[in-house]
Amino acid sequence: MSQENKRRWGDRRDGRWVRDVSGLTTLMMHIMTNRTDAEVYLNEKLDVTDLMAYLEKENAKHPDYKTTIFHALIMAIARMIRERPKMNRFVQGRRMYERNEISLSFMAKRRFADNAEEAFMFLVPKDEDTLASVSYEIAGKVHEARKSEHSAGGFDSTVDAFAKIPRLLLMLIVRVVRWLDFWGLNPKALTEGDSNYSTVLLSNLGSIRGPAVYHHLNNYGSNSIMVTVGTVHKEKLPMPDGSEQLRDVLEIGATIDERIGDGFYFVRSLRLLKYVCAHPELLDKPLGEPSGFDYNSKEF
C-alpha cells in the first residue's frame, strides 16, 4: 500500500474517510441519514452508433466469445469513474468515504427461466485493463456461473446460508450486521463480492428486452450508484448541424446518492460517459490512461 493510500484513523477497510467535506454536505449526511432519502434519478439516451460499429468489428476478431454492448458500457462507466473520483464515494455512518478501488457488479441469471436462480457478478477493473480484458473476464464469470443451477461457493453460498437460519435469530443477526455496517466493521466474508458494496450496481434489463426503469438504492452497504440498461433501438436524434439522423440509441436509468457530489459534477460525469461512447477507440486504451475529454466542449 502506498503512503498516499495508507490507512489512517477513521478510514474503513474499503474506503478512506474524506475529511474536507463542506458544511452543507455534513448537514445533509445528518439530516438525510438514509441513502434512499438522498436519491436523484436521471433517464438518459446514449448515442451508441459508433460504439455498435466498433463492437461489430472487434467481435469479428474473436468469434469464440462476444463482446456485448453491456460489456462496453461497464468499461465506459469504469473509465468515467476513474477520471471522476467523487463518483467513487459513499456515505455510511454519517461520514463520507472514497473507495480504495473501482468496482462494478450485476446479477446474472443461471438460465432464462422464471424459477432460475441468480448469481452475483463482481468486477474490479485495474488501471491496465481494456475492454478486451474486461469483456473476457465477464464472459468467463458468467459462463462459470451458468455451469450449475445453484451457487457453488463465494458470496452466493454465504447468502444462501442465511435463508436456513430461523427467523427470530436471523432478525437478531441482521440487526448486528447493520450495526457493524454503520461503523465499517463488517467482516470481509460478508462484504467481498456483495453488490451492495460496489461502486456501481448495474441491471442489464436489455438482455431480457426490458426498459431502463427506475431502481432504488439500498441503505445497507456502500453502493451509491444504480444503473439500469435498456435495449438498443433506432431513434432520430438531433445532430450538431441542426439536422436529424436515425441513430442507434441505448437508454439508461441512473439513481445516485446526491450527497456524494452536486448536480454540476454529475452532469459533467455524464458528458464524459457520452464522449467515451462516441469515441469507442478509448476502450482499447488501458483504464489508467486519461481520455483527453475537453470539459469546455459544447458537443456533449
Question: What topology does this entry show?
Answer:
Layout: E1 15-17, H1 23-31, E2 39-47, H2 49-59, H3 69-83, E3 89-92, E4 95-99, E5 104-109, E6 118-123, H4 131-145, H5 154-162, H6 167-183, H7 188-191, E7 200-204, E8 225-238, E9 244-257, H8 263-278
Parallel strand pairs: 5-7, 7-8
Antiparallel strand pairs: 1-4, 2-9, 3-4, 5-6, 8-9
Helix pairs in contact: 3-8
Can you tell me about this structure?
With 300 residues, the protein is an alpha+beta fold. The protein has a domain at 39-149 and 190-284: Chloramphenicol Acetyltransferase. It is 32% helix and 22% strand. It has 8 helices and 9 strands. It has helices at 23-31, 49-59, 69-83, 131-145, 154-162, 167-183, 188-191, 263-278; strands at 15-17, 39-47, 89-92, 95-99, 104-109, 118-123, 200-204, 225-238, 244-257. The longest helix has 17 residues, at 167-183. The model has no long low-confidence stretch (mean pLDDT 90).
Biggest β-sheet, characterized?
6 strands, mixed
Tally the helices. Answer: 8
CATH class of the domain at 39-149 and 190-284: Alpha Beta
First-residue to last-residue Cα separation: 37 Å
Mean pLDDT across all residues, rounded?
90
Which descriptor suits the 3D outline? globular
Proportion of β residues? 15-25%
Number of strands: 9
Keyphrases for this structure?
alpha+beta, Chloramphenicol Acetyltransferase, six-stranded mixed β-sheet, three-stranded antiparallel β-sheet, 9 strands, 32% helix
Quick overview of this protein structure:
The chain is 32% helix and 22% strand. With 300 residues, it is an alpha+beta fold.
